[in-house]
Design goal:
Number of domains: 1
Largest sheet: 5 strands, mixed
Shape: globular
Radius of gyration: 13 Å
Strand order of the largest sheet: 1-2-7-4-5
CATH class: Mainly Beta
Structural class: mainly beta
Number of strands: 7
Order of helices and strands: EHEEEEEEHH
Distance between the termini: 19 Å
Length: about 110
């Protein structure tokens, strides 16, 4: 799992990757709770994104399609984390609103900017 905790890392995200392994993805960590906005600029594969609150509870997830960054995908409520995975990952793993993400001590203490 890749982690994007800086503004530059979050801006680059999964750009220019052609594929992800089955359970590979990227966790975006934001410095504060807010309505998160993501796009698919230079991303070449459909992805699911799950938005999580500061306690790691799933707010909701949605599917993002490669479209050159034309569509802005937003969290339905203020969120702290966004987890991008292969399309269908959340459904295959039977995750729904309220599912708890385990946040390691290392991630809780990471410097976010």
């Amino acid at each position: 799992m890749d982690v994007a905790a800086t503004e530059d890392a979050r801006a680059e995200g999964l750009m220019h990757r052609q594929a992800l392994a089955k359970d590979e993805g990227m966790l975006f960590i934001f410095p504060r709770d807010e309505i998160l906005k993501l796009w698919m600029l230079n991303v070449h594969m459909p992805l699911d994104v799950g938005f999580f609150d500061r306690e790691g509870r799933l707010i909701h997830f949605l599917t993002m399609q490669p479209d050159g960054g034309k569509t802005i995908y937003r969290s339905a409520a203020p969120a702290r984390y966004a987890l991008e995975m292969n399309q269908g990952w959340f459904s295959r793993n039977r995750l729904s609103k309220g599912a708890q993400m385990q946040i390691s001590r290392k991630l809780k203490n990471i410097t976010v900017n």
